[in-house]
Amino acid sequence: MPEPVIVTKKLCRRFGEIRAVEDLDLEIPMGSIFGLLGPNGSGKTTTVRLLLGLLEPSSGSAQVLGYDTRSESDRIRQETGALLEHDGLYERLTAEDNLDFYGRLWRLQEPERRIRIEDLLRHIGLWDRRRERVSTWSKGMKQKLAVARALLHRPRLVFLDEPTTGLDPLAAVALREELGQLARKEGVTVFLNTHYLAEAEKLCDLVGVIRNGRLAAVGTVGEVRKGQASLEDAFLALMEGDESCSSTSA
Amino acid sequence: MFFDVCVIARKEWKEYVTGQGLKGGLMNILVTVVVFGVFLPAQFGSTFVRSPMTLLFWSWVPAFLVIAAVADSFAGERERHTLETLLASRLSDRAILLGKLAAIVSYGWGLTIVCLGLGLVSINVIHRENGLLLPPLGLGIAVLVLSLLVAVVTAGSGAVLSVKAGSMRQVYQAMSVTWMLLIFGFSFGAKAVMDRLPKETAATIVKWFRTMGAPEQRGALVIGAILVLGAAAVLLFAIAERRFRHLRCVPK
Description:
The structure holds 2 protein chains of 2 kinds. Chain A is of the alpha/beta class. Chain A has helices at 44-51, 73-79, 95-105, 110-123, 139-151, 169-186, 197-203, 221-225, 231-238; strands at 4-15, 18-29, 33-37, 59-64, 67-68, 80-83, 157-161, 189-194, 206-211, 214-219. Chain A has 9 helices and 10 strands. The longest helix of chain A is centred in the C-terminal third of the chain and has 18 residues, at 169-186. By secondary structure, chain B is mostly helical. Chain B contains 10 helices and no strands. Chain B has helices at residues 2-18, 21-44, 47-50, 53-79, 83-87, 93-126, 137-164, 168-196, 199-213, 215-248. The model of chain B has no long low-confidence stretch (mean pLDDT 82).
């Protein structure tokens, strides 16, 4: 089994009385695509924020790429890429300027930066539109660009928080395919938050199901299905009694 | 660190210039330069280069320019959900803060200097019969230093407000109202207070101001203002950095 890139032990985060994440134990091996599944408000985004060191855990611990999220969060952010809840693109700038800014920020030198931007934009089919302002683009195009931005500096680990949310089915399928191809091509470990079960089934090597901040199941898609006809059935069985899971779609 | 600050400042400048399209951005800058660099100096006449009141005017210009930029840069970026992605990158809080402040100050103060230079040219063209009109060296240096410090203090206070403000509009309004209160409050408030004071006290105060405003005292007055503004700038930066660091760990 490859070395784990993310290890959490009894990781908890509370906001007052609300337990957003509770006793989370995870071990994610290098090079895998891990999907964290759960309905809205189940603690997926909080988990990503905790792993990136954007939030302090209330108790427990987490190590990402061997760094402690409490004391070495700067190192974690230096070596990972992230597409958070919002695409985070500068809408007043062009697509090329957005990637150029983040390329400079990640200290990619001039010839390499230009080549990398061209390579990524061509791969996602947006090279011809690189000089358009992002504000004029569709949500699907923006999400593709945001994924490219997260991978720009060739991070070893990338966090993607619901990258296909709000996309129409065609755009979601296209982005999913691009994402899978890019992740395999780049050999990057992906931590994917999603509530689209089909997405997880197609993309992920490992999945975890989170419910009310607690990990209800974790393993390969086959292991989580546990004899159920589909991942959706397994998910619904795990979510039994949880009204929020009605917002989750397959 | 220096490189990171430059990267942020470069991005901010790009947004100022191309934010409303390249034409719109350049048009904004052009209008500012024409109003402050040609129209207003032409109205002042030769007072523009001779009167110490010039100091007050040119201290106000960078504040006016900085207010809009600082509201957009901090609160605006949070409102547009781009700040969180920036905070999740390898940049330190200090680099982000300094980069943004550097861009804002260079924009506000830089445009002020351009307007000032253009104003001098305009005055000399309009009043060419009076020969070369230049401000006294001391006044010129005081204008440059004070306008820079006003830009820094305005940017710093905008950053402090922005980190916790609900929206960009809120920051813009709070800062505009504060400046209006400072300018008009001082003018009208001082008169209202003086009218209510006993005549002897009022006369003593007026005498003190006259003494302070005398040419031989002006240097000390300007140095005092520089020290106060410098201290305010350092304090505001420290507060902004503290608030900004906290922002990384605040749940959205």
